[in-house]
Write a structure and sequence with these properties.
The protein is mainly alpha-helical and about 130 residues long. About 60% of the residues lie in helices and about 5% in strands. It has helices at about 5-15, 25-35, 50-60, 70-80, 85-90, 95-110, 115-125, and strands at about 20, 40-45. A two-stranded parallel sheet has the order 1-2. It is globular, with a radius of gyration of 14 Å.
């Protein structure tokens, strides 16, 4: 709906499974609905680059999830971009089974039970420093 940091924080803290900006609505609404129906988290494409960049920056500074291996961090980053296991497998040249094993390992290490919780975790890692241009 809005690009403001506080509104994003409140939406995800309240348990939102998606966030769609007004300017995305005409072309992204059906995609958002389908994504959420599949149990995934939907983020407006206009917000994802900011989250990705900040997540990578924080991880490189040593503030990221120290429990995760480099490969698990790669997989988590791609999950936060909305990539499916099949897409991640192709991008990282892994089998789908290997991606699923990484996903399971990440979830076990972070003590979460759903993919949406993985995205919320990654989102929370960068959210307090997020400055989205208005």
């Amino acid at each position: 709906m809005h690009k403001g940091k506080e509104l994003l924080e409140h939406a995800f803290a309240a348990g939102a499974d998606g966030y769609l900006l007004k300017e995305d609505a005409p072309r992204e609404l059906l995609n958002a609905i389908k994504t959420i129906q599949q149990g995934e988290v939907y983020m407006s494409p206009l917000i994802v680059p900011y989250l990705k960049e900040l997540y990578v920056q924080r991880h490189q500074k040593g503030n990221g999830p120290g429990l995760l291996t480099a490969r698990e961090t790669e997989v988590l980053k791609l999950i936060t971009e909305g990539k499916s296991s099949k897409e991640i497998a192709v991008l990282l040249r892994l089998s789908i089974r290997t991606v699923e094993n990484h996903r399971a390992g990440i979830m076990r290490k972070l003590n979460v039970s759903k993919s949406t919780d993985l995205v919320r975790y990654a989102f929370s890692m960068v959210m307090f420093t997020l400055e989205i241009p208005q």
